[in-house]
Amino acid sequence: MRAELQEAVTLLRQSDEQSVQKAVMLLQRTVFSFSMKVCGHREDAEDTMQDVLLSSLPHLRKIEDARALSVWLYTAARNRCWRSRKRPSYRKSVALDDLMPGDAELAAQLAASVQSPEALAASHQDHQMVHEAVLQLPPPYRIVLVLHDMEELDTAQVAKVLGLQPGTVRVRLHRARLLVRQQMDKLLRGQPDHASPASVSSGTAARVRPSQCREIFGNLSEYLDGRMETRSCNQMQAHIEACPACIAFIQDLKAAIDRCRKLDIPMESETGTTLRRVLAEEYLRLVEHGEAAEPEPPGPSEKSKKHL
């Protein structure tokens, strides 16, 4: 969970104009950045920010826990984002086999892994490239990646925002990470992407994967996030340490996840200045008159459910 949300809750409790304005600014930045990562359109992100914060005012006084605030805000922002523009249609499901690297890709990663850390860091600093890669993901995977790895919600919070089972969140998160790594690799190499990432196989030739390799590949996110049982983790660690290609691929995957986590899209300084003042004044008025609604999170709209 973003530290800004915890700070905003603390500031709102102080109920003075300066603190409330700062809290509203933090909420504006959070909703705007999230909306840009999901929708990719600045105008839509600004409209989402305004609509979500206006609708949240009656509830903010009752929300004393930052986790509850994050679920409320992201649920409302997600619903508003999906309504803002017509989305292209994507396959809902992405097969794990389509995301497994082929021999040529593994060889290329092995070669790239011997570059100096400075060269690798310099090639990975393009935030615009990262944002473009994220926007190429099918919406059901993009939203999970953004909420978990970029907005720092845990699995339970993401599940609550999206109305999914935690296990489904973990499966989609892993595929989303593999998809965004694949897309970043294409962009870094300057390869055109003529098809939806959900329909492109990274292998150079179709072949049957050994069951052990597929099992390890399917559990990489659980391994990286420290969620595996000790015995399984040790077995996986032993396999990885004995396989240079596995080491190179995991390093590439971890680098992609790290670049996603570092991506933040700042709001222009002038954006929302007047709105922030109006929202702060209205919040203080509601507090003074005791007008606060129960903080019931908005449920998924019918239009947004098809993207889950």
Automatic annotation (TrEMBL):
Residues 26-86 form the RNA polymerase sigma-70 region domain. InterPro entries: RNA_pol_sigma-70-like, RNA_pol_sigma-70_dom, RNA_pol_sigma70_r2, RNA_pol_sigma70_r4_t2, RNA_pol_sigma_r2, RNA_pol_sigma_r3/r4-like, WH-like_DNA-bd_sf, Znf_put. Residues 213-246 form the Putative zinc-finger domain. Residues 128-178 form the RNA polymerase sigma factor 70 region 4 type domain. Keywords: Sigma factor, Transcription, Transcription regulation. SUPFAM superfamilies: Sigma2 domain of RNA polymerase sigma factors, Sigma3 and sigma4 domains of RNA polymerase sigma factors. One of its GO terms (biological process) is DNA-templated transcription initiation. Residues 288-308 are annotated as: Disordered. Belongs to the sigma-70 factor family. ECF subfamily. This is RNA polymerase sigma-70 factor.
